[in-house]
Amino acid sequence: MASILSAGxxxxxxxxxxxxxxxSVQPSLSIDSEFSHFLHQYATNKASSxxxxxxxxxxxxxxxxxxxxxxxxxxxxxKITTVTTSSNILVKSIPHLYRLAQYPVVIHVSLNxxxxxxxxxxxxxRNVGFTFLQSSSLQEAQDIALxxxxxxxxxxxxxxxxxxxxxxxxxxxxxxxSRDLVTKVINTDLAKQYQGTKSEDTSLYVSEGRAQVRTxxxxxxxxxxxxxxxxxxxxxxxxxxxxxxQSSASSSSSDRKNSSSVVSExxxxxxxxxxxxxxSSEDIDSICESIWSxxxxxxxxxxxxxxxxxxxxxxxxxxxxxxxxxxxxAEFESATQADFFRNVGLVTPVLYRPWLAERLTEVxxxxxxxxxxxxxxxxxxxxWGPVLLxxxxxxxxxxxxxxxxxxxxxxxxxxxxxxxxxxxxxxQNLLSExxxxxxxxxxxxxxxxxLSGMQKEFELTQPKLENAYMKILDQLFGQRLFVANALGxxxxxxxxxxxxxxxxxxxGALLARREHRKRFVSxxxxxxxxxxxxxxxxxxxxxQWALAAxxxxxxxxxxxxxxxxxxxxxxxxxxxxxxxxxxxxxESQWLIGSDAWAYDLxxxxxHHVLASGENINMLVIDSTPYSERAAQDAARRKKDIGLYAMxxxxxxxxxxxxxxxxxxxxxxxxEAEAFDGPSVIxxxxxxxxxxxxxxxxxxxxxxxxxxxYWPLYRWDxxxxxxxxxxxxxxxxxxxxxLQEFLRRDxxxxxxxxxxxxxxxxxxxxxxxxxxxxxxxxxxxxxxxLLEGLQGAPMTVLFASDNGNAENLxxxxxxxxxxxxxxxMVMAMDDFPLEDLGNEENVVFITAxxxxxxxxxxxxxxxEGVKNGTDLDLVNVSFTVFxxxxxxxxxxxxxxxxxxxxxxxxxARLAALGGKQIVDIGLGDDQDPDGYQTGYEDWEPKxxxxxxxxxVEGLPDEPPPITNEDIxxxxxxxxxxxxxxxxxxxxxxISAADQxxxxxxGTYMQDDRDLRDERKAQGLxxxxxxxIRCRLPGGVATAQQWQQMDAIATHLGNExxxxxxxxxxxxxxxxxxxxxxxMQAINAALMTTIAACGDVNRNVMCSSLPELSELHxxxxxxxxxxxxxxxxxxxxxxxxxxxxxNDKNVQVAGDAVQDFEPLYGPTYLPxxxxxxxxxxxxxxxxxxxxxxxxxxxxxxxxKLQGFNLLAGGGMGVTHNMKKTYPQVGRMFGYVxxxxxxxxxxxxxxxxxxxxxxxNRKHARLKYTIDTMGLxxxxxxxxxxxxxxxxEPKPFHFESNIDTFGWQKDEKGMHHFxxxxxNGRIEDTADFPMKTGLKEIAKVHKGDYRLTGNQHLILSNxxxxxxxxxxxxxxxxxxxxxxxxALRLSSSACVAFPTCGLAMAESERYLxxxxxxxxxxxxxxxxxxxxIVMRMTGCPNGCxRPWLAExxxxxxxxxxxxxxxxxxxxxxxxxxxxxxSIKEEEILGIMKPLLKRYALERNEGERLGDFVIRIGMxxxxxxxxxxxxxxxxxxxxE
Length: 1532
Ligand code: SF4
Description:
By secondary structure, the protein is an alpha/beta fold.
């Protein structure tokens, strides 16, 4: 029965039959669309749908009420949903379309206005991920509507069906498609799968990345989806056996797979469909074929992806993307021989997206040589139309024959009368020798009177290639668009085009524009209250508008109405307002610039815009073709603006390319506009000139996007608030740096989620945190301030050695930002010197290194400033804050080193013409609060001068994170160590984790020898890790030695260090090898837990087993104490030892509940060290530790108990008299059975009373001195429930090792070998490491590491003695024939690995000794032991304060010299000279040694001698260490 009269009806009926819900978008609720009348009629009649059980729901929505928003709710509750609409809602709905593409939604679009619609509404959204179908007649409207629904259900993806309703207005009525056929084709069984599925996420903003996992229904005749065992939809497609028609039979599916046109080739770089997109273009092709073959078998009507009509041997064809193909076809048919368009073919797309190039070449006769492409696009934004580009890419390599000539036309309105003339024009041009591109055909303004006034404003212009992005902005925002720095814009008297193009200019212009609008709003408010208008209406409208002026939607809706009313009013008051009528719109404000801005990021307007936090949009166009990027001037490196902006943290950022994905450009621009804050869009448009070939531009774009050089992405830092991902990748590749940024960012958010209380400190975007708090606390005050100031810029540059200057600079920057200043903080050397003259306010913060030198990261800039002759700072205001130590150089002549870098810089900047903001500030470590004392005085002056001294409502600053915070928040030492180990983007771990890994026995370090070189190469420092084992008493088996050797060789830097705490230490272990190294140590039955950190460390014990039984028992006690005081956390095991695949590993989250019975969650205030010495050897320096145990031998020769000393410790800060070394004080005697409990109780009292606020004052020695020895001891005894007994007598002879062979009471042999400073390594002439390894292979005894960093080959039986001797000889390890001075010397590691080293130590002491050995020999003292020690800093790792002579690093090459320590390690030494270099050292030592040789008493030790002769005063205990030093500090 032929009863359907219009396409609207045909579509509405199919939609109704195939849906649970139909959203009917209408001009208003009372005005019908082409579809709505029918839909409502069906619903009123309660007609049933084929899909749902009853009557489908028809919802009417107004077209300007964000209609697609209504689709989410039904689709998420499993309803099959259809939309009927006109095309004018589409572009604005792009963000919805991206999401909805992942649901089986059908949108039927009637193109607008009928008869001469703008197909640009379709091309603009072509990349949203929907499938697009077009129909051109009444019958097609019904069949394609049915195809659309069947396709949506079978593919699970969205389908848009579009048509111009006018095409079919003179078609004959058609019959209803039978319900039976509709049921079969749409496959209602498959539909049920969707209907049963509810999406769990009901928020509008959740990710729509729904994976299409359902079986794809290829044949509607099969009630259930065919299953042939293959999971691949493609494989199923070819195995399905669905009949194809002849035209496609020649094309095998494998062929098609190779050509793999997921979308149009022209856009294959940018499959921006929402991800994931498991349904491929091949699937869509197969499904369409299957649907159309069903239709054909039931109705006889044939459909193809492309329609072709015309002769099979034509040489010319016309590809139409516009209205009324019927008219064209009729014209071609009636062409005469005289016509240019005789014998031509006509092609129209039925399946527009995915664009199946192969289907096109199938239908297009091979004979075609020329193709005219007609695109009916009203407002052109790009030079070449999208359909032309599709054709170009599709046909360029379609076979051996030449690529056809393809010529694009813009199609205007053609009525029947002008048809012949128009076609003649088209083909005349097409067939000419050099056809002209982009000719317009027909009437641009459409049929008479058909366009409204507004539409007429869009006169046809041929966009230039370079204008594409501007045109798109115009398309999206129309009258609301305001471009601040467009070159063509009228300027405010600024003539220089380059200034008008600069971001600073544009930024200023935008701010001025905002001010202007604000004034305008208040003018309107005033006008609304007057009676100055001729008519009454303006007042009402104006006051309504004034209320809504800041809301874009409302203001823009009212604007045209008001303008119209004011125009008809005609009064002077109305005229006055109309002068600025543009301001009635809430503008979309844009700054447009080129990539030239990227050379100067920190200083450019890009930075200003970002730092301002203002709602301003920037579009930065990069036109460098991919192939030419290498030719760029390498010295002027372009920076990645997108990355810069993302790092800034508060901006919306997108990277787009118009010739890759047009729709993504629209999407990004809409999002940028909607984002409340700065937005930056990086837009790619590679070209050289306007005459570039379109193919070249396409291919350049494709290459850049495909290779990841120009990834397409969108980044919204506020997305998380809506439950969305911040980063959305719209292309397939992503360049390395971006990947690393994202990885780091993930890491950062992980940390923030875990420790929200620290987020302000951890977050890069501190600025935004501050802004939030401020807004809440003092919105008005803050905004008034910002308006008044518009943020003066303040650049803070620092040079920092140990982090203090850097932290201070960052803090200053944050505080400046909170006061509304536009701040930037960076290291001096990271700032381009040539830009210094352009800064307005610069604040330098510099520490003092070495002998009054600049820290490493400020040296280059200082050199430049010092030597720069053409540096002009007349426009720069500056100040300096310097950090130093006024007592660091006690001698008067060295005083000028104090804060020298800061002072020099200040003077030099003034000499170069800079203006002082305020006088230099000096921070002094000697002040009561260190440098803070001076800083607190200086900073307020700075704010005062910058005009931000009195700002109210400033947020509280989060307190700095302390070690105590880190421990407490670490969940028993877990922190984010495990995550950090997986982060491959850096060789480092986070600062907090660096503190925590110490407890696990590993420190992060970097090779300081390589720092400068790596920095110059733009690399991060060469990070690696030191691992320290826990080895009570320093005893290891021969097998363990071999295992340690293998770890050093394969996982470390091929050396090992025997430490002053009798253990193995590995250096140079890179992050990726940390776990394997830890596991290998564990496999050797050792551990590293608590080898460092605020816990009890490795327990030491005298090494030389002369009395083997006594030694064995004592060693047992060492082990018992060590085990007893071990932390209990299982974090160590989890992080390092469990297998990667172990499902039980719970490294993240706080799920694992640990308990530390001895330590509690914050462990100890500071490290805790215990040692045991067995008299007469004090080789472990029993006085230097928190607890020192002196083993007491009973009358039976066996171990009886210990004298216990407590409160020794070495660490000191140079010239800070509050810090001092201390010797352990005698607590009394304890028996061997309970000694571990006594140690535990001492540890408890320290745990509960130690200073947790100041790590420099946290060691036990200070706790005892603060509490008083008696009080402390009494507390221990109370806890213990026992008293210390009187100490037993004991006697020490020395604190050095006894070298050579010794025999114990059981006849076993022990050889103490000399290992200089404990370093085990192979050198060209001394393969020590290899030798020790070879010996370990045959040695049957064990090894003992000594506290002086030497090694004992222990327990050699009589029968092995000769073998061992031979081997020791072979590897030159038996040499103990060194001067006694050398044998008694000891040095710490220092450079290059120790991060705290101020001077060389291990690498220098041997040299120094060589230089002294001459005097020693001359004076016959080769066998006289003198304890000489050296460390690289006052931390005291090699216990220098107990040596007779010590050198402690102060600056590179400069040492403090100490004299007078007791030979047995029983008395501290004292400062003799400070900051002396080698020459002075030798100048003192040589005569001293000579005098000692001549004047000493019998058996008198050097340490005693120097006191007796009055060279130095004796130090009685730590608290008088700083008194009576030989070098008295002089006041200035
Ligand atoms: S004394 Fe100082 S320089 Fe030497 S290893 Fe210890 S911390 Fe490093």
